[in-house]
Request: fold
Amino acid sequence: MTEQESITIALEDKICRLDKFLSEKFNTQSRAYFQYLIDTGFVLVNSKKIKKSFIPSVGDDIEIFFQAVEMCDLKPQNIPLEILYEDENILAINKPKGMVVHPAAGNWENTFVNALLYHCKDLINFEDKIRPGIVHRLDKDTTGVIIAAKTTKAHQRLIVQFQNREIIKKYLAICVNKPDNQIINAPIKRHPIKRKEMAVIDSGKEASTKIETLAYNDKLSLVQASPKTGRTHQIRVHLKHINTPILGDETYGSKSLNKKFNIYTHLLHAYSIEFMHPITNEKMKIVANIPDEFKKFIHKIS
Reply:
C-alpha cells in the first residue's frame, strides 16, 4: 500500500536539489530512491511533475507517494558487451534485444548500467546513482548503437548535444505496408487511458521523424527512420500513426500479423549515430551490426 506525505518548504529549510532535500528530510530512504520516485512521477511540486534537479522555493507544496519497490545498491555485473568504440571518455556498444538500459522497478539487475559499472570502475563517482554515464536510451527490445559517458565532462557535453538536437541518429525498421517518404510532425504524450503507452495527441510535446522506405515486397517494407526529437517510443508511435506499424511490436503493432510472421518483439534497430566527440571535438560516426533475425526479414523484402 502506497503511503503519502505532504510537506511545504519553510524558511528554515536548507534549500538544495529536490532529490537531495528529500533524502535528508526522510533519512530512512536513499537519494537514489527519491530519484526513482521523481523520475516515475511519484513526487509532485505544486501538483506538477518535476525533474530531480529541480530546486524548490519557500512555499512550494511537495507531495511524496512512497512506493514499496526493491531499491538496492546497484551491482557491477560481468555482462558481455559488443563494444563498437571506446576511449577514456566514451563507450559505444551494440545493445542486444532484451537488455534494459538503466535500472527501474522490476529491473535492478542485468541492465546496461550494471554492465557499465563492471566495465568502467570510475562510474561510481557519477551523481546519478541509478543511471551513471547514460546520455540516451533505447527501448528494451530495440537493438543497436548506444553511447555512454565514462567521465563527468563527457557526460555533460553529450547531454548538451542531445538537448540541442545536434546528434544524428538513423534507425532501420521492418514495417507493415509501405510508408511514403515524409517527415512526420505529430506531437506525442502519455496515453490518457493506457498509461504505459504513448500516443499522438495535439497537446503533446513536439515530435518529428524523417521516414524513407528503402525496400518493399507488397507486404513488408524496410524503412529508415531519423528522429529529430527524442520522445518516448517516438518512432514506434509515429509509424503506427501513419498505419505502417513496426512488425513484431506487441504494443503499437498488428497482433494478427505478428502471429502470422511469428515475431513478437519489434524489429527496430538503431543503425548509426553521428556526433562530435565531447572532448576532442572529432566528428564521430558509429554503426551497429544488424542482428541476424532482422537480416532474415531484410532478405525477404529485398
About this structure: The domain at 3-66 is CATH 3.10.290.10 (Structural Genomics Hypothetical 15.5 Kd Protein In mrcA-pckA Intergenic Region; Chain A). The chain has a mean pLDDT of 90. The first helix runs from residue 18 to 25.
